[in-house]
Amino acid sequence: MSASESGDTGSGGRFTLARLKLGGGLGRALNELTIVVGFVAISLYLAVTTPAFLSTANILSILLASSLIGIVAVGETFVIVTSGIDLSVGSVVAFTGVMTGLAIHAHFPVPLAVLTGIGIGAFCGAFNAFAITVLNMSPFIVTLAVLAMARGLAFIVTNGNTIFDFPDSFDNIGGGNLGPLPIAALIAAVVFLAAWVLLSRTVLGAEIYAVGGNREAARLAGIPVTRTLSVVYIISGALAGLGGVVLAGRLDSAQPIAAVGLELNAIAAVVIGGASLFGGKGSVLGTLLGVLIIGLINNGLTLKNVQPFWVQFIQGAVIFGAVLVDSLNQKRRGRV
Amino acid sequence: MSASESGDTGSGGRFTLARLKLGGGLGRALNELTIVVGFVAISLYLAVTTPAFLSTANILSILLASSLIGIVAVGETFVIVTSGIDLSVGSVVAFTGVMTGLAIHAHFPVPLAVLTGIGIGAFCGAFNAFAITVLNMSPFIVTLAVLAMARGLAFIVTNGNTIFDFPDSFDNIGGGNLGPLPIAALIAAVVFLAAWVLLSRTVLGAEIYAVGGNREAARLAGIPVTRTLSVVYIISGALAGLGGVVLAGRLDSAQPIAAVGLELNAIAAVVIGGASLFGGKGSVLGTLLGVLIIGLINNGLTLKNVQPFWVQFIQGAVIFGAVLVDSLNQKRRGRV
Amino acid sequence: MATLLEMHGISKSFPGVRALADVSITLERGEVLGIVGENGAGKSTLMKVLAGAYRADEGRVLLDGAEFAPRGPRDALDAGIVVIHQELSLVPDQTVAENIYLGNLPRNPLGMVRRAVLHRNSRALLARVGLDIAPGMPVRRLGIAQQQLVEIARALSREARVIVMDEPTATLTIAEQRILFATVADLRRAGIGIVFISHHLEEIFEICDRVTVMRDGVTVATRPVAEWDEAGLIQAMVNRPISALFPPRTSSIGAPMLEVEGLSSTGRFSDVSLTVRAGEVVGLGGLMGAGRTEVLKAIYGAMPDTTGTLRIDGRPVRTRNPREAIAAGIAFVPEDRKGEGLVLPFAVRDNVALSTLDRLAWLRMFSAAGRTDRLATDAVGELRIRTPGIGTKVGSLSGGNQQKVVLARALTTHPRVFLLDEPTRGIDVGAKVEVYRLIGELAAQGGAVLVVSSDMLELLGLCDRILVMRGGRLAGGIEREAFSQERIMALAALG
Amino acid sequence: PAAAQQPAVVGYSVSTLANPFFQGMTKGVVTGIKAHPGLTLINTSANGDANTQATQVLDLINQHVAALILNPINANAIVPVVRRANKAHIPVFTLDRGAACGKCQVNFLETDNVALGKEGADFIAGRLKARYGTIKGNVVDLEGLLGTTAGDDRERGFATEFAKLSSANPGLKLVARQAADFDADKGFNITTQLLAAHNDIDAIFNGNDDNAIGAVRAIRQANRFVPIGDPKHIVVIGIDGTEQGLSAIRKGQMDATLSQNPLTMAAQTVNYIEQYLHGDKAGIPAHQFWPHVLLTKDNLDTPEVKQYGLWGDQVAAQ
Ligand SMILES: Nc1ncnc2c1ncn2[C@@H]1O[C@H](COP(=O)(O)OP(=O)(O)OP(=O)(O)O)[C@@H](O)[C@H]1O
Ligand SMILES: Nc1ncnc2c1ncn2[C@@H]1O[C@H](COP(=O)(O)OP(=O)(O)OP(=O)(O)O)[C@@H](O)[C@H]1O
Ligand SMILES: [Mg+2]
Ligand SMILES: [Mg+2]
């Protein structure tokens, strides 16, 4: 970064702009997120070339489609900010989904069944946290092992069968609407908002960044590192549990094979949103953009009737392009 | 990277290995790799409980089954030591496999077809390298995009079909024997040996560790960082290409869908072998152990005819256990 | 009233090293206790034990007469023991304010950060340490000296009974040092006990009430400052007499060796032209942030987007990257040894060999362990690097010894032009003398030395000529005959 | 007349293309649509993820397609979007796998996977009987990907029949049951290790032809291949009839496969759609099993089989 830029950071354009427009944090945050350029570019392209894109139904469908990965990616954001990784989320979604389904079939009232799902997710997160903090194991290995174990458990408890046929009151969580709005998207919105407050406004959030940015400095400054890390993995697990509930509701069924590979998509969304796997960086707003970019790409591929063989290639190319814009932008602005 | 991480960063075996003199040297190197305890534990358990385990045929079958992931994991080791990641290897295996198959069908002589496959893999690696070093993009995103693009290309060039029916001279690369030894395992052995020499005994190897350990210090010390990183990704791509050749030969066919998820297994092997995703740490010997541990687990599950629903769970639990032994061992020895 | 702090019989070992052996110190309220000693004497380790960062193997600590056994840094902080660690411990991607209040953010009952309070308080603290930057700026963008001031501000933000300053001035220039000393005086008046560690003995004499000397993990002596003189202190530290700090400048100065013309880097510095002749030691002075580091990096090819021309021995050279600079005979010692100088997970041996990997190699390809070991052993011996062995991880050496490893590495490429950025930062008197002697020898052998230092006495003692930078430009130069602190300050600050 | 100019858009969602069978099905849909000038296609693949499929189908509904051809990943998980389609009055035709809501689909053209598994067991029993005079021997079961209908139903069919057979014939043993995930390389690795552990394997049942190809290659690699008819020959049977499977049968490396025909099956669905859009709803059956055949070297090139269609060869030829 050039000295002139750093020199006027305090009072220069950045802050003025922020104050003018959005009253502080949000404007500043958006300004930091150059990936916004990629997001806007993709949206514009689709809006101009595809008449159906801007319809309310289509936009709501994008939001609905993004809600599961969004919920999970929020948890992943916390973990990645601490320089950790949670590979178990996809399997935990499947496992909590079938457990919730079994709870429903065992005549748990819906709210209790939902809490069961979230609670089992949180328990998986706590297991990850214990192994990482107390047993001092690498997050990659721990969550990879839990990826396999949770998936295995999902098969074991269901005997490989799909659990299905839930009451509407449950299905609505994932598949219902409130007025015109998909409830799952509303839940995701609440999760994003809460996470945004937590990460960018609270002391715990600042401690999460500190632990990720320099663990030893955080420890020396008296930040309870173990507790912070534990909270983070438990949040990630609990949100995967919520994801399992939402998915089971949406599909009126829970399958042990659900959400395979979801972790990679969630991590991708977080990284597209500007987080670094080395920790200390990343934001909920960035993750939101990352999730929406992925949702936009998938939606665009369907709307434009791209032939399936080309779909993966174009998905890859568009992600590459969107992030390329971002990194060239950063380079131009001398932030390398 | 956090300070505490750096605190327990073992010298990754390199410098110890560099002085390996088969006497005390190897002992010390192995001592560094505490994962050896997990490896021995699993082997002993299988030897005692499963009569068939120690037969020559079975041990060769483990080596054969480990050869593909081994070849790919070697490339991944290089990348991870530089604190990068290569998610594209599984797709590159598939893409180079079908390209090699198409070359064979286009009547390329076998050696040329093999070189084509390896070359295309190297090209994919060069693409990764270019985006990472010159365009300054994050390795995670770049290789994720290439994961999608290479997979897409594999479908596009084959129109989704399986390419099959190759001459025996080609098939033998992956599925033939030299005396009692599977050729694929021999190839993997050569790859491991070459990689071990390269990483632990050459200037380039030392530079790779330095770039992973502290990129800025390496740059200021005059190490050509861009070149080093490029070499590393190209090696990874080329080895994935070799993997594609081996796989196509073994199955006498190349499918665009082959090797899905192989990257995660390869990365797991490297991390089980003691590497850190934060770079500067890891060794070829460690990766070999990691690959063999995964091979042992799968072999044990087959020999003991574990019911499929339990397979994943047990895979996860055993990996967890093996690495737990390792990390408790490190803790006991005060290296935390 | 009980003594504020007593540490009794503290021992602490690391694998292969006995860092502390039965060390005892005491500290009264309102007292400044100086601790001096060679690199690796155990000063920082002792303070880390106090801070709860390490647990002692033996010994006990009494705080206000009560047993004090911290289980972690949190306990120590809660007891009012605040340590400014020698190694910077900041979070680069957080803001200055967040770093000042790291672990101690002002919060409302909902657990939210009270940002207005945070920034108001931070601004006040920044003013107190003389740092004029916005509290919202990410620490990543600060130079190393500014980061040190942020650390000091953090210490001031805490409710402290004991403040430990482990080489707080190592990176500071005289102006910030004055502000710091004024602050120390305030703290002392408030009855806070202060432990002050420094390799700058004049600072010790200026602000300390008592001085403890440590050597090889034991306390050699503790006496009131009045009972020490400089020679005695040095003698106690290094256990051998040291005649003169600075070697006499005797080398004969020859033809221009390094010529820099019109060197500019947008937004960083502009139009810097300077010449260093063979056998000459030129100092580069200036206030923090004047751009000295960046000029050195630009010459070394480590700064993108620079313009200007470079000649060595009259021949134009291009240094587009450090590799080319090394090939052209330039060596560079960075100021930030952890971030830019060392590969911390590597052994001492491999850090020393980092710039000469191919030269040491067999066929320029295969590592030659024997040659590498010999090179490293020689370097450890020559620079008296205190390490259990060349296979020891460099990260576990004391700060000063780490610095010597960086110096050793820079010398392995047989350079003729030496760019030294704060080369004696954090190293002890004995080692300093060795570095000065080394610089003298480099010059005597016909090398050209350009040295940046914030230690004005060092510049005055060491150099043949001093250039002063201000705001990214060369403000002027002073020949040895005209050397004086006042002239340097005048060029650096006023113009 | 207006409708004739404006072709009706058919939305298609296939569960995955990661398997030749579904590629065949997709090609069947594509060629079927081409054969009807009044129809065009939006072609999507869900990549094996039920949630992705729900989203894709919703996107198709939002585009007001005239009809939907769905190859569901899971019969239950597809139900909510099928109901959405019903609400939007878009007729749903399911292929290979149905939606678990009966009348919510106009036509459900099914592969009887349970029967495929059962017939696989019977085939092996027949070969063993021919070899030993009684039904006995050691059998390996390489099942498909857990959690998929094709994998699970075939396994169920095989396991039920095998249990019946072995209780009647005590000499018939299942020496191993492992999931090879429809992945040739997994099939190869597992078979290699089983061959190392057991030198008396008589037959291997495979959840699909890719598994079978892995087994065939492993037998060759282990030098355990002997031609069909030799008492030491290891019987290998797959399911699907992929091009490579047919080729292996022709070469005598593999004994048999149970083949459906996704091309004709998909074409039939398109025909039903055409029929439906022209108002002839009565002639469309609600549910139908698409026939399958057992293919061996002996019958592979007979007219009856030609008549049924070797989709593996046809797809590759296109
Ligand atoms: N974490 C550690 N692991 C191993 N050895 C260590 C560690 N920390 C310190 N040491 C060793 O303990 C001894 C004392 O180191 P310490 O950092 O306390 O010295 P110091 O007096 O502060 O020196 P300096 O003036 O260079 O800062 C040294 O030999 C050092 O190598
Ligand atoms: N990486 C960077 N990004 C942004 N600004 C920087 C960076 N490095 C240095 N600066 C700023 O550039 C200016 C010049 O810094 P430089 O380090 O060259 O000064 P210096 O004279 O060497 O002082 P110091 O004593 O701090 O080393 C300072 O304002 C510093 O904050
Ligand atoms: Mg110290
Ligand atoms: Mg500087």
Automatic annotation (TrEMBL), chains A, B:
Keywords carried by this UniProt record: Cell membrane, Membrane, Transmembrane, Transmembrane helix
GO MF term (any one): transmembrane transporter activity
UniProt-annotated location(s): Cell membrane
GO cellular component, one term: plasma membrane
Membrane topology per record: Multi-pass membrane protein
Signal peptide (UniProt feature, chain positions): none
Top-rank taxon, per record: Bacteria
Database matches in InterPro entries: ABC_transp_permease
Keyword Coiled coil among UniProt keywords: no
Lipoprotein in keyword set: no
Chief localization: membrane
CDD domains for this protein: TM_PBP1_transp_AraH_like (cd06579)
Pfam family, one: BPD_transp_2
Transmembrane annotation, as ranges: 29-47, 59-80, 87-106, 112-133, 140-158, 178-199, 229-251, 257-278, 285-303, 309-328
PANTHER family in UniProt: ABC TRANSPORTER PERMEASE PROTEIN YPHD-RELATED-RELATED, RIBOSE IMPORT PERMEASE PROTEIN RBSC
Name the UniProt record assigns to this protein: ABC transporter permease
Source organism (scientific name): Lichenicoccus roseus
